C-alpha cells in the first residue's frame, strides 16, 4: 500500500458563482496575496501592513477613529468584540431585533451578563427613530444595538438621526455593518456611530476570517471606565489595541496571510472608488429586480428599504425552495441562499456583493433561474427576465 492511500484527496473545490448571503466571489489578486510568504506577526513588514490596513479601514468606514482595526475572527467575532468590550455584567442594553442577527446580538449581550431589552419587528420590517427614541428614553440603556443591513431578511435600516436620540438618552450606538460595509455608505463619523463591526466575506470580497471594527472616542472612554475585566481575553480591546498601535505589545498571533488578503481586497475597493462601488451595487440590484419582476417574482421587503447587495425575494407559489437552489448549484454552479427564521422556505436570498456584483452575473442568474422554473412547471415568458434586465442596462448605463 502506497502512502497516498492513507490520505484524503487534495483540495480541489468546484468553481462556483457565489450569489448567496456570503461569502462572495474573490478576486484572483486577493487569493494570490494570501499565498505570499508568511512573516512573523511582529515582523516590521507585517506591522506596516497593519498600519495600512487601519488607514484603509478608516476610509471605508468614513471615520477618523483611532481605534479601527481587523479583529482576528469572522464577522460574529466582530459582534462579540464590540459587545463584550462595551458591556459589563448588569449593564442594560437595548437590542433592535428584526432578523436573525439582531437576535444574535441580543444573545451575545445576555451571555455577557447584560440586562437585555429587545425591541422587535417582523422579519423584513425596519425600525423608526420615534419608536427607538421612546424605548431608550424609558430604559436609559448603556448601549443600543441595531443592524444596518439585516442579512437574514434583505432589509436596510436607516441610521440617520438615530444617534441623536440614543445619545440624548445617555447611551452608545452600536451598529452591525457586516453586509453593508463596502456596498453602501457606512458613515461612522457623520452619523455619530460609537461602535461598528463588519466581516470580510460580503461586499469586501475577501475570504471569511477577519472582522473590521471601529470605536469612537466615546466608546473608548466607556471601555477605559470599566470596573471589571472584559469577559473575553481574546477579544479584550485594551490589549488588542496595544498590538495594533502604540507599544505593539504581543497579544495573539494574528492570521498573517488573512491580513494580506484583506489588504489587497481593500486596495481594490479604494481603487474602484467608494461612490463608484456604491453605484455599481445599486445598479446591478435594480437590473436584477427588473428581471425578477418580469418573471413574476416579488421582493420580500418594501421598496424603500431593500438592500442593494442582498436581494430577498418571495418564492413563487407551488415552487420547491430547496429543489430550485439545488438545480442552480448542480446545473449552473450558482449558489443562492434560502430564507432564515420566519422566512425559511418562503424566500430566496440572492447576493450581489463585491466581486459578485456584475452585470454578467445578473444576466446569467436570470437565465439559469428561468430554466429551473420552467422545468418546475412555472408559467413565465421564457427570456423575459434577461430581456428586462438588459433593458435596464441599455437605458441607464451610458459608458
UniProtKB/TrEMBL annotation:
<feature type="region of interest" description="Disordered">
    <location>
        <begin position="1"/>
        <end position="22"/>
    </location>
</feature>
<feature type="binding site">
    <location>
        <position position="349"/>
    </location>
    <ligand>
        <name>substrate</name>
    </ligand>
</feature>
<protein>
    <submittedName>
        <fullName>Purine catabolism protein PucG</fullName>
        <ecNumber>2.-.-.-</ecNumber>
    </submittedName>
</protein>
<dbReference type="GO" id="GO:0008453">
    <property type="term" value="F:alanine-glyoxylate transaminase activity"/>
</dbReference>
<keyword id="KW-0663">Pyridoxal phosphate</keyword>
<dbReference type="InterPro" id="IPR000192">
    <property type="entry name" value="Aminotrans_V_dom"/>
</dbReference>
<dbReference type="InterPro" id="IPR015421">
    <property type="entry name" value="PyrdxlP-dep_Trfase_major"/>
</dbReference>
<dbReference type="GO" id="GO:0004760">
    <property type="term" value="F:L-serine-pyruvate transaminase activity"/>
</dbReference>
<keyword id="KW-0808">Transferase</keyword>
<feature type="domain" description="Aminotransferase class V">
    <location>
        <begin position="38"/>
        <end position="339"/>
    </location>
</feature>
<dbReference type="InterPro" id="IPR024169">
    <property type="entry name" value="SP_NH2Trfase/AEP_transaminase"/>
</dbReference>
<feature type="modified residue" description="N6-(pyridoxal phosphate)lysine">
    <location>
        <position position="202"/>
    </location>
</feature>
<comment type="similarity">
    <text>Belongs to the class-V pyridoxal-phosphate-dependent aminotransferase family.</text>
</comment>
<dbReference type="InterPro" id="IPR015422">
    <property type="entry name" value="PyrdxlP-dep_Trfase_small"/>
</dbReference>
<dbReference type="GO" id="GO:0019265">
    <property type="term" value="P:glycine biosynthetic process, by transamination of glyoxylate"/>
</dbReference>
<dbReference type="InterPro" id="IPR015424">
    <property type="entry name" value="PyrdxlP-dep_Trfase"/>
</dbReference>
<dbReference type="Pfam" id="PF00266">
    <property type="entry name" value="Aminotran_5"/>
</dbReference>
<dbReference type="InterPro" id="IPR020578">
    <property type="entry name" value="Aminotrans_V_PyrdxlP_BS"/>
</dbReference>
<keyword id="KW-0032">Aminotransferase</keyword>
Amino acid at each position: 500500500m502506497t502512502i497516498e492511500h492513507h490520505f484524503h484527496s487534495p483540495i480541489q473545490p468546484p468553481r462556483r458563482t457565489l450569489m448567496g448571503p456570503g461569502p462572495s466571489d474573490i478576486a484572483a489578486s486577493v487569493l494570490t496575496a494570501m499565498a505570499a510568504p508568511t512573516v512573523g506577526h511582529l515582523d516590521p513588514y507585517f506591522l506596516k501592513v497593519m498600519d495600512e490596513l487601519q488607514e484603509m479601514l478608516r476610509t471605508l468606514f468614513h471615520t477618523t477613529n483611532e481605534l479601527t482595526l481587523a479583529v482576528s475572527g469572522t464577522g460574529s467575532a466582530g459582534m462579540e468584540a464590540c459587545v463584550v468590550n462595551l458591556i459589563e455584567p448588569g449593564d442594560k442594553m437595548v437590542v433592535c431585533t428584526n432578523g436573525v442577527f439582531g437576535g444574535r446580538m441580543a444573545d451575545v449581550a445576555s451571555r455577557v451578563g447584560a440586562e437585555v431589552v429587545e425591541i422587535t419587528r417582523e422579519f423584513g420590517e425596519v425600525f423608526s427613530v420615534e419608536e427607538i427614541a421612546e424605548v431608550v428614553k424609558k430604559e436609559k440603556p448603556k448601549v443600543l444595538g441595531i443592524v444596518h443591513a439585516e442579512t437574514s431578511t434583505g432589509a436596510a435600516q436607516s441610521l440617520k438621526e438615530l444617534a441623536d436620540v440614543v445619545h440624548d438618552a445617555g447611551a452608545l450606538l452600536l451598529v452591525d455593518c457586516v453586509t453593508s460595509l463596502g456596498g453602501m455608505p457606512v458613515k461612522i463619523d457623520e452619523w455619530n456611530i460609537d461602535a461598528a463591526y463588519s466581516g470580510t466575506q460580503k461586499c469586501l470580497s475577501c475570504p471569511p476570517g477577519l472582522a473590521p471594527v471601529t470605536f469612537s472616542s466615546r466608546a473608548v472612554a466607556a471601555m477605559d471606565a470599566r470596573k471589571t475585566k472584559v469577559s473575553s481575553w481574546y477579544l479584550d480591546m485594551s490589549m488588542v489595541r496595544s498590538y495594533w498601535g502604540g507599544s505593539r505589545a504581543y497579544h495573539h498571533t494574528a492570521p498573517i496571510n488573512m491580513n494580506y488578503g484583506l489588504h489587497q481586497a481593500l486596495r481594490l475597493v479604494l481603487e474602484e472608488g467608494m461612490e463608484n462601488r456604491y453605484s455599481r451595487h445599486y445598479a446591478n440590484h435594480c437590473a436584477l429586480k427588473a428581471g425578477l419582476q418580469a418573471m413574476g417574482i416579488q421582493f420580500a421587503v418594501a421598496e424603500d428599504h431593500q438592500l442593494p447587495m442582498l436581494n430577498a425575494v418571495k418564492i413563487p407559489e407551488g415552487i420547491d425552495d430547496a429543489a430550485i437552489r439545488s438545480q442552480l448549484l448542480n446545473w449552473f454552479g450558482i449558489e443562492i441562499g434560502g430564507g432564515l427564521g420566519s422566512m425559511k422556505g418562503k424566500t430566496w436570498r440572492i447576493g450581489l456583493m463585491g466581486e459578485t456584483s456584475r452585470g454578467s452575473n445578473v444576466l446569467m442568474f436570470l437565465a439559469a433561474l428561468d430554466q429551473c422554473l420552467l422545468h418546475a412547471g412555472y408559467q413565465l415568458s421564457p427570456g423575459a427576465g434577461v430581456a428586462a434586465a438588459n433593458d435596464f442596462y441599455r437605458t441607464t448605463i451610458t459608458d
